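Question (not urgent): is this output format expected?
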Amino acid sequence: MIGERIRKERLQRGWSQENLADKLGMTKNAVSSYETEKTEPNIEILKRLSNIFDCTIDYLTGVSDDKDSVVYAGVRNGDTIKVHIHKNYPHNLTPEEVESLLDNLVDAGFNIEKLIEKAKSNQ
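Got this back:
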């Protein structure tokens, strides 16, 4: 998935592998090996790619299909709940904070199970 996304983003910009390699400060062969998934980029390269492509690491790695969302997962009543938050949201949340957010929604009167069912049916 990572290689496919890197290639897609590179081609959308009309860049060659060499162009992207120059932006990353590496060789064309390194970019090629990422795109063919012979190797995976480390976290530092993923950070640089997300900045270059103006997308999230979650998008590059296939966790999310939304370029602008970070996916946080929490567990509620045994179910894993994924919360998509826009990349420009000013807070980085831990899984514990996501669970706290869900608890706060319940405390405010929201029916979390109903919201989860609705979210799942919209996917």
